[in-house]
What we know:
By secondary structure, the chain is mainly beta.
Amino acid sequence: MVKIQKLPSGQLVITIPKVIAEYEGLKKGMKLEFKKHKNGFLLEVKG
C-alpha cells in the first residue's frame, strides 16, 4: 500500500512498499515524476 505522510516541517512524502522498490531498483533519494492518467496517476523514474 502506498501512503502519503506529513512531516513535522509540513512536507508531504510518499511511502511505497519495500518489495516494489527493490523490484524496480528504486533507492533513497531517487526522483519520480507524476503524470495524470485517465484512470489515476503514473509514476516515471527520473533518477
